[in-house]
Hints:
Layout: H1 2-13, H2 16-30, E1 38-47, E2 54-58, E3 67-73, E4 79-84, E5 90-95, E6 99-100, E7 107-110, E8 119-126, E9 129-136, E10 142-152, E11 161-169, E12 178-185, E13 193-198, E14 203-206, E15 213-220, E16 229-235, E17 252-255, E18 257-258, E19 269-272, E20 276-285, E21 288-297, E22 306-311, E23 316-321, E24 331-334, E25 343-347, E26 351-355, E27 361-366, E28 376-378, E29 387-390, E30 399-401, E31 409-410, E32 420-426, E33 432-438, E34 441-449, H3 456-503, H4 506-521, H5 525-543, E35 550-552, H6 553-570, E36 574-579, E37 589-591, H7 594-607, E38 614-621, E39 628-634, H8 652-668, E40 673-681, E41 684-694
Parallel strand pairs: 36-38
Antiparallel strand pairs: 1-34, 2-3, 3-4, 4-5, 6-8, 7-8, 8-9, 9-10, 11-12, 12-13, 13-14, 15-16, 16-18, 16-20, 17-19, 20-21, 21-22, 22-23, 24-25, 25-26, 26-27, 28-29, 29-30, 30-31, 32-33, 33-34, 35-37, 38-39, 39-41, 40-41
Amino acid sequence: MKWIHSHILRQIALSPFLLAIPFTLLILILIPDFFPRFRSDLIETGFINKPGGYEFWKDVDMDGKSELIVLFNNTEGEASLKVIEEDGLIGAHYYCRGEMLSDEPHIYFVDFDHSGNNRIIVFSLSNDSIFLNCIDHANLHDFLFRNLFIGKIRTAGSKDAKTSSVFFEDMDGDGWKEIILTIIAGFPLQPRGCFIYDVRHNQLNKSPDMGVFMGIDAIEDVNQDGFKEIFTTTYSISNYPDSLGGFQDDHSAWIMAFNKELKFLFPPVGFKGEYIIIQSLPVRSGNEWKLVSLLYQLSSGNSIPRLILSTIEGRVISEKELRDTRERLAMDLFYIGQEREFIYKSDQQGNIEKIDGNLQTIETFNVPVFISNNFLEADLDEDGKKELICAKSYGYPPVIFRHDFSSPVYLDLPPSMGARLVQIKTLENGKNTIAIQESGHYYHYSYERNRFYLLKFPFYIGIYLFILGFIFLIRRLQRVQLERSRKISDEITALQLKSIKSQFDPHLTFNILTSISYAVHQENKELTNQFIAKFSAFIRGIVTDSDKISRTLGTELLLISNYLDVEKMRLPQFSYDISTHENLDLSIEIPKNIVLTFVENAVKHGIRPKEGPARIIVRVEEKTGSPLKIYIEDDGVGRTAPKDAGTESTGKGLLIVKQILDLWYKLHGNRITWTIEDLTEGGNPTGTKVRINFPV
């Protein structure tokens, strides 16, 4: 019963239907996904409108589709802005005082009063002054305000300053959005700080001068007083001398937040060290808010990456050390959508953790790119859910994720180490597309559900059926090959039986039996036993393994030795020698009786007719990389000598050998050849030499 169960299990395991499954899965893993759930296509590409400029897309005239806004420095050194309509005509041209603020400039769009009118915000730099400009293209076709002084760069003529963050939020509860921004200067050192501009009341408010690099992470009403607070990212770049004064030097990174008057929400908490980054995001935990800060260092140092949980008043509750790495990989904190009960931490290895207000990891993800907090969110496929467009991370290809980081779709754009502008462009039909500018070129992409997605299942089934059919074909070919091999083996066996019949020479058998009878009659027991032993050994060698078509070289040579011993007993003047070298591999398989047939021919047609002493030499040679050679040489009467009736050859033995070797070649692909050389001396025959070549 156990054997039956084992047989059944083996049959099931070897079933083609089951064997096709792992091969199908392997192929599906190795081949590209031809039918992804979502797809992105390159709609349009080309050179940007203005070399050296920057292109932005936004509906600024309230017609439901995006216009092209081009920002560039004109020949007068002024930051110029063109609004280009769909037909390619310039809808308006605006000029700002001074040039674009930084090497990576940006413009922003804001609907201050929720009227649907997107105003254009652009920053400019004139000598040592930073200005804020706002354009109302839809209603005024002019500036809403222009050349609003924001701050002064400490080193005149330097361009090493930029806006690190720009947000638009209603900070005072009057229904109008204010402009909240941070400016950081590099080697000029100032300005560094946070600014709020109240558009409705034309009022600019500034934080105290800062020494630390600072940006804005989030703006939320965490103390539920109806006014929002500002939470920052800080970076200890360590180039700000203490002699300049100012709050919060850049030899430390700080956990820091501001209220609507740009006063500290709590005393800043500093962490000393070079190149430390601290990001802080408020997270809702039940009915209260807490502050989660991510600390990591971009250079070798003693600061272990960690999460810090604080109260909104700045009191540290707990810390959680993160996996430290020698590479000091970048990390990031961010929200997704409007969800504030959780935050997400990412690193450069593509690891993402979803974290709650107690620093507990709720869920983990792994993605093929580094997702930093500069991704865009937009509903690209019109399903009511926003996708994540991650295209700004340096060194990574642009990729679009679902809101849960699933179904990544790569845009056909190589990884970049330079500036890349990524925006959402709205078409006339209301559909959102992706607009990317990089290295003087623009690329526009669509994103949608793949209508061929469901074809992947018939495709998978087709691959399975193909593999299944291939397995059946292989098995069929195996059966055909086995049947062919069996037929060839049967033919070889039949020919070998013919060869055996020829080797049972009636004259030899009769003469041996006569010799045995004579020895018995003479009561020569020793001679009788020798005859019987040698003859029986020869017969046993002939008939042993009759169901096989080959034997080892060693077995063949032993059989030849037994045969020649029998002949030597009948022919007293006959001698032989079998020569091999010490390292000869005697386990080599050769066709049965092939060598024996040539030896038997040498005895029958060369040695027996000769009067006087006669000799046969069998020599085996084997050289590395060369065929195995067997020589059978006799000094008999030769093939050209007259034959009597008892020794004349019919040629059937060699014909059988040829047929066997032809079938052997079909079966194994090894061509065994032989040559016969007539030996002469002074024109007289002196014997025969046979050489057989066995391929390695």
